[in-house]
Every structure is written in C-alpha cells, then in structure tokens.
Design goal:
By secondary structure, the protein is mainly α. The chain has 13 helices and four strands. The strands form two sheets. A two-stranded antiparallel ribbon has the order 1-2. A two-stranded antiparallel sheet has the order 3-4.
C-alpha cells in the first residue's frame, strides 16, 4: 500500500480526522465555516494523496490536483483555485499567493496534539520523511528561532514536532494579514468580516441569498438553469453550423456535377 494511501486512511491526513482540524483552524482564523462548500474543501483538498508514493516528493507535490478537480466539478473554478492554492509549493509553482485554505490547513497541523499525530504518522511511515524534509527546508529558511531549529534537528519525534508546530504557528500568524480570495483578489485582514458571508439578491429571481464567494450573482437554482440554458444555446449554434456546412457541401457537389 502506498504511503499516501495509508496517510489518507489513518495517517496525518486521515479523512475521518484531518478535515475537522482544518475546520478548527478556519474557525480560529476566519470564523465558523457556515458554507457547506467549505466542508467539502476540508474533506477533499488532500484526497490526492491516496495515489501518491511519497508525501513531499515529486508525487506528493501533485496531490492538490485531484481534490481541486473534484471541487471544480462540484462548485466551479473558484473553488478549484482555492484548493489548488492550499499548497505553498503549488502556489509558488503557478506564481500565485496562497489561499485561505492554506492558512487553515497549516494551522490544523499546529493544532493536532502530539499524542494523536505521532502514532498516526509513525504507522504510515510518513513521519520519517517529514522529519528529513523539514531539516532540509530548515537549512534555507531563516524564519526558525534558535530553539525551533534545535528541536527540528532532534531525532526525538516529540521534540521535532514541538519545534515544527511552533514555527508553523508563527508562520500562519505572519501570513494571516494577506491572502487571496476567490478570483485572485488580494484581501487585507480588515476585510475578513465582509468575506465571511456575503448577502445579495439573485440577479434572476430576486430572492435573498448568501455565500462566501464575492463573485456570486445568482442563487444556486437560477445558476443551474442559466448554465443549462447556455449549454442548450451552444448546442443549437453548433448544430446550426453543422447543418450550414453540410448544406454548403451539398451545393458544391451539385455544382460540380
């Protein structure tokens, strides 16, 4: 069984526990997650690890893709983007800032108690990889304090975890002042309350709606109807073009005969 599969089943990214720690992190940073789509994001953002043979290597670095694609299929490109940018590595790769989900995800790691995290990560075999990788990254990162550096270099898992969680907490605190919301809009910390929940009237039916997406214009029912209408119109246009092309071909053949 791949280490990523084991991580999702009962390791550091356990599908029964990790989403709730991410929700806890989100609540501490942005308020209680009332939008049901956020809970889907909490559950799906790391699902890609299930096919990964490593956690922080070439395979693990692409784990964001599967969950992001599922979120995009379910809720649209804005949610796909939110999940893609929950990874600091992937955000750097595509040249975009991290998302709010990234901050909640990192805070979730810092909130997980050692008595739970260490046995789970040890069982899957990912703990040793994390310890080695964190030392490699620490060598080029000047954000560690002297005490955190000493702890992260330790061979004792409890000390290593304490040092990395301390660093992660400070990292989240340093980066919580700015993040990019749906659509790539940079949002200042003073705008958190406005971004938690947006109230608006549907552009088609006029009923009151609420969402965390700043780009929403229609209620879910009207949005689906509009999407279906646009799809039918597109299909009709394509059919009309095919008929016109077929008719033109018949005319040309008749003229040649």
């Amino acid at each position: 069984m791949k280490v990523g599969t084991k991580s999702v089943i009962g390791g550091a990214h356990c599908f029964l526990l990790h989403p709730f720690f991410v929700a806890w992190g989100w609540a501490r940073l942005f308020g209680f997650p009332r939008d049901v789509r956020l809970w889907f994001a909490f559950a799906l953002h790391d699902i890609g690890y299930v096919v990964c043979g490593d956690m922080d290597g070439p395979s693990g670095e692409r784990h964001v893709l599967l969950g992001a694609r599922i979120m995009g299929w379910l809720f649209g490109p804005a949610w796909e983007d939110e999940c893609l940018r929950h990874s600091r590595y992937w955000s750097r790769r595509i040249g975009l800032p991290i998302s709010r989900l990234c901050l909640a995800d990192k805070l979730a790691f810092a909130l997980t108690p050692s008595w739970l995290y260490l046995p789970m990560a040890g069982w899957t075999g990912e703990l040793q990889e994390y310890m080695v990788r964190s030392r490699e990254r620490q060598a080029g990162d000047h954000g560690f304090t002297v005490e955190e550096e000493r702890l992260v270099r330790s061979e004792v898992p409890e000390d290593w975890l304490r040092g990395l969680q301390s660093y992660t907490l400070r990292w989240v605190e340093r980066h919580r002042d700015k993040w990019t919301a749906f659509g790539g809009v940079t949002v200042e910390a003073s705008m958190y309350p406005q971004m938690k929940l947006k109230h608006y009237d549907c552009a088609d039916c006029g009923i009151p709606c609420k969402t965390t997406s700043p780009n929403a214009e229609r209620c879910r029912k009207c949005a689906k109807l509009r999407q279906g209408r646009q799809s039918r119109e597109y299909q009709q246009k394509m059919l009309a073009r095919k008929r016109a092309a077929r008719k033109q071909t018949d005319v040309e053949r008749g003229a040649a005969a």
